[in-house]
Design goal:
- The chain has 149 residues and is mainly β.
- 9% of the residues lie in helices and 31% in strands.
- It contains one helix and ten strands.
- The strands form two sheets. It has a six-stranded antiparallel sheet, with no helix packed on it.
- The protein is globular.
- The chain starts with 9 loop residues before the first helix and ends with a strand.
Length: 149
């Protein structure tokens, strides 16, 4: 008689493959393999608490009142909960590290596991995400957003 073992999960396979690549000297980002999200919002850097330089991500005109815009390359989402009030958050979901893909119906939405976050404060409103999106400082300079992570 033969014994059957359960098939490995997708996460187990992907994390194992990433570990093998990393051991071979390749630079690999292993997102979602740990048990919790990092407290730095994924900014990395290891600068020991030194403030990072602001990043320019887009124009104020691109962010509607009650909505927001995802700046995927910068991993930043900017919202405008009320007229003239702008908020910036990490676009990295606190559940599995996916990048949120849209702001719809006053919710920042993650496509991977349906986590939703409030545009006003990044708080979890639905899904498996364990904590709010980390907030960043945002200012306007010459009509463009300057975000400090």
């Amino acid at each position: 008689m033969t014994e059957s073992t359960p098939a490995p999960t997708r996460r187990t396979v992907l994390c194992g493959a990433a570990a093998v690549l990393a051991a071979g000297g390749g630079a690999v980002a292993v997102t979602g393999c740990g048990s919790s999200a990092s407290s730095d919002g994924g900014s990395g850097g290891g600068s020991g608490g030194a403030a990072a330089a602001p990043v320019t991500v887009g124009a104020a005109a691109d962010v509607p009142v009650g909505g927001g815009k995802v700046y995927r390359d910068a991993k930043i989402v900017i919202t405008q909960p009320t007229e003239g009030q702008y908020k910036a958050f990490s676009a990295k979901c606190t559940h599995a590290g996916c990048i949120v893909d849209q702001v719809k119906d006053a919710q920042i939405q993650c496509p991977c596991h349906a986590s939703h976050f409030a545009v006003a404060d990044g708080a979890v409103t639905a899904g498996p995400a364990p904590s709010p999106l980390p907030a960043y400082q945002v200012t306007l300079k010459d009509g463009a957003f300057q975000v400090t992570k």
